[in-house]
Write a structure and sequence with these properties.
The protein contains 12 helices and no strands. By secondary structure, it is an all-alpha fold. It starts with a helix and ends with a helix.
């Protein structure tokens, strides 16, 4: 029995190690070769920061980074607010309306990005008063991020006691006070999860952004696609910067979440 348990312990740890290596080895590879002294993507030849210098000295790279961050933050904020309000409204609606809207909400999630991108391209081409560029990309990102927020918040709302809102109203709260003081504090983890999904979806998007952009506006995904057409080691430096931005964002969000959890646990 001890030999079997020891074998399965070693086997499980080995499998976990292989899985983690499979996930993170490409990222580690990119980060190491971002400091390569030559253009080679397969052979290291000394330590150098030349590719980072190229990223920060090339206006196109910096513009793509700022466009990506700005759209991701704005799309996350707006889609989180819209998705949360919609989910709360649906939780108080009739069963037929709620089920119908939930089914409709699943369409953008299941719809292939290529179809969504072409549809939005046709829409923005028909609506000529909206110039294609930053605005159309932001609208598109809000459109495909909001359903994920709704899907994240709705299960938590279903688990809440439906009498909580009535109790708050009976105790003198207005509907707005009941929402902000009773409902929202209990669904904060779901809201944060939805915001993280929205941020990731926006930051990572290429297909939809490629179809709806214009006027020289491009995010990091479009820029990387253009750079892959030729050997360009600055892709490694740019990718490493993106990884660090996401890592810092996750650390900040986790610290905020831990602080909120501690503040709730205090008497």
């Amino acid at each position: 029995m001890q030999k079997k348990s020891r074998f399965w312990s070693i086997f499980s740890k080995t499998m976990i190690g292989i899985t983690l290596l499979f996930f993170y080895l490409p990222i580690i590879y990119i980060m190491i070769f971002s400091f390569n002294g030559s253009k080679s993507l397969t052979r290291l030849s000394g330590f150098s920061l030349q590719w980072y210098e190229k990223v920060f000295n090339t206006s196109g790279y910096l513009d793509a980074i700022w466009v990506t961050i700005a759209i991701a933050i704005l799309a996350t904020l707006i889609s989180t607010i819209l998705g949360t309000i919609t989910a709360i409204g649906l939780s108080k609606s009739g069963k037929m309306l709620r089920n119908s809207v939930e089914r409709i909400n699943e369409l953008p999630v299941m719809n292939p990005d290529i179809v969504t991108g072409i549809s939005l391209l046709m829409l923005f081409s028909a609506v000529s008063f909206i110039p294609k560029g930053f605005g159309t990309m932001l609208i598109a990102h809000i459109m495909f991020c909001t359903p994920f927020v709704i899907l994240s918040v709705m299960p938590k709302l279903r688990s809440l006691d439906p009498n909580l809102t009535d109790a708050a109203l009976d105790l003198g709260c207005t509907p707005m006070q009941a929402m902000f003081k009773v409902i929202i504090p209990q669904i904060v983890p779901s809201i944060v999860a939805g915001a993280l999904i929205a941020f990731t979806m926006s930051f990572d998007d290429f297909v939809i952004s490629y179809f709806v952009t214009g006027d020289g506006v491009q995010n990091i995904s479009i820029l990387v696609y253009a750079l892959t057409k030729r050997i360009n080691p600055s892709i490694n430096a740019l990718s490493t910067i993106v990884i660090l931005i996401i890592l810092v964002a996750l650390i900040i969000i986790n610290l905020i979440s831990i602080r909120m959890t501690k503040s709730k646990s205090k008497p």
